Here is the input.
Amino acid sequence: MGIFERLKQGLARSRAAISEGLTRVLSVGRRLDDETAEGVEEVLITADISPRLVVDVLEEVKHRYKRREISDPAEVIGIVRDRLKQMMPSRECDAVAAPEGGGPTVVLVIGVNGTGKTTSCAKLAKLHSDAGRKVVLAAADTFRAAAADQLELWAGRIGVDIVRHGEGGDPGAVVFDAADAALARGADYLIIDTAGRLHNKEHLLRELEKIRRVAAKKIPGAPHEVLLVLDATTGQNAVSQAKVFTEGLGVTGLVLAKLDGTAKGGVVISIWSEVRVPVKYVGVGEGAGDLERFSPEEFVDALFE
Here is the structure.
């Protein structure tokens, strides 16, 4: 199955909500009146596209209708599709360049516990491993009892190395040892899972800053990528988390996990419009290989085809 087909399969619930919902509202023979416009608005908001963006889409539709560029309400679907594409970044996000001084690319993965953060670390490791890159995982979430066990289980399944300490240990010490291991083993990527507690942002900032310092001492320029994992099924709550985590944490990209489990795929567009941090990966299934590099155009197409 190709990447686009996998994305379509993962977005089945969201596609049903958006594409099929619009088709129902814009059935042949209906007039493009206020009632129809309200139906379009309801479909888009239900899919968790923010009201501000929905207003933008509807204004475009009304503008085209007044200029007689629309003769059939069904044509609105094409306009909505094109407008959503225009709201997203113009191209697929670039991969992170290798560090200039050599050594592994260090990826720091952050996010609230329960978002799929640890699983996303494993999926990202498999993505790189399948591409022929050597990966080391660092289990630096030492505060959640099952986090290191979960990551170690994943590492065994996908065949990559992992460095872990005991529960309640120092995350910085885990990163120190993992960086040593990555350098000694000639790894291409060091992927660091971190604790996801958000009850005290200042504490979180200090903890992550310590991890950054430790990584940078061992590997110049580290971390080279900071990925924030968000749970797509939480809708607007994911938007709120994105706002909090992108303030002062140096986030370079987003991972939208559990996209296959929601009919609210429009939240991807809402998040981009609010924080202007690119979505780099989307989780479209529970398997180790169900993480896809994000393409804005393919994402919108998968919501309609």
Summary: The first strand starts at residue 105 and ends at 110. Residues 105-296 form a domain with the Rossmann fold fold (CATH 3.40.50.300).
